[in-house]
Amino acid sequence: MSSTVQTAGAPSARGRARRRIGIGVIGFGWLGQAHSRSMLRIPTLFAERDFDPELVICGDTMPERIDEAVRSYGFARGTADWRQVVEDPAVEVVVIAAPNMLHVELIEAAAAAGKHVFCEKPVGGTPEQTVRAEKAARAAGVITGVGYNYRWAPLVRHAAQLIADGRLGEITNYRGRFFSMYGSDPLGVLSWRFEVDQAGHGVTTDLMSHSVDLAHMLLGPIARVIGTTETFIRERPLPGAAGTHYGRGRPEDPKGTVTNEDYAGMLCEFASGARGTFEASRSMVGPESQMAFDVYGTGGALGWNLEKLNELQLYLVEDTLDTGYRTIFGGDRFPYHGTFVPGSANGIGFEDLVVIEDYEFCRSVTEGRRHSPGFAEAVEWVSVQAALLKSAQSGCWEPVVSLREE
Hints:
It is built from 11 helices and 18 strands. The protein is α/β, with parallel strands linked by helices. It has a 9-stranded mixed β-sheet. Strands 1, 2, 3, 4, 5, 6 and 7 form a 7-stranded mixed β-sheet that branches. Strand 3 (51-59), helix 2 and strand 4 form a beta-alpha-beta unit. The longest helix has 20 residues, at 375-394. The chain is globular, with a radius of gyration of 21 Å. The two termini are 20 Å apart.
């Protein structure tokens, strides 16, 4: 565990002195900035907290981002050398939001330094990398968290409670999907996200990981799968020196080969006996960010879609007079929602989910307990991923075997 000496902060609403948690962030792109904003927001939203996050140091390779972190976000200092983040004695938690290919090295270094680690997904770009990272963190005895942030949506928590309470009866079927258009333009440049040696696998790593993680939370483990993958856009324009994931080339530009998958689909059997289907795509035209699931049981059904994150569709057989789905609007009667806005049908947004997950991770650190979702849950997902990828090659049903290493 971290040997950082924590000073006492202001008292909590319960009268106890709040523990200060020093935060170091590696990677100050969109999600690094989102986590930094959430750490700043936590004190304004959770009066009952027993901790205060402190932005200590931010690491990034771009000087303008380092300057922004210090000047606008209030980090005490910034650096172009990520090692200074993990070695800083004032840092207790390292938040990793760097590109995929760096995650395992950063995790291993942070864990070896005794820092608790929150890593944006994927923990590793491949199953092997994720297993290696989890083993290193577990051996070091540090607390881990992973950015499966859709778990924290208030209506997803409500859906989980409905299932746990038996309101849907025996669960028979599950449908999970994550459809995004970020790779649908054939002239979108060949950023690292489309290369297996940089990003790891494609949509199974980037998108389906979210979908299956939610299913694990809601229904439990998956026993076996049969699946398929495809790369529909096989070549893309090479990026310029300052290219980004959202850059666009020209038809005449030189092209490079896409080396990971645009699409993945699978059928599965849950350990409970329920049947499921999953799909993920980055090249499909139409859905903008359709991270969604539907659960079907003998007593009812429900569905949720990130594109309408403040709505839950619910059908209950017990409603004998009014059949059909009804819309449940988000509101302060559901977990976390009232922290942000009062009343009903006053919506929350994506970055509010980041605040919730950072708050809950810091709570786990403060209380010295295992956090969920952590790297153990990431290994549960990549165990499914490995079976899916094997099935895509064999054309057969494949068992899900835990990849966790002792």
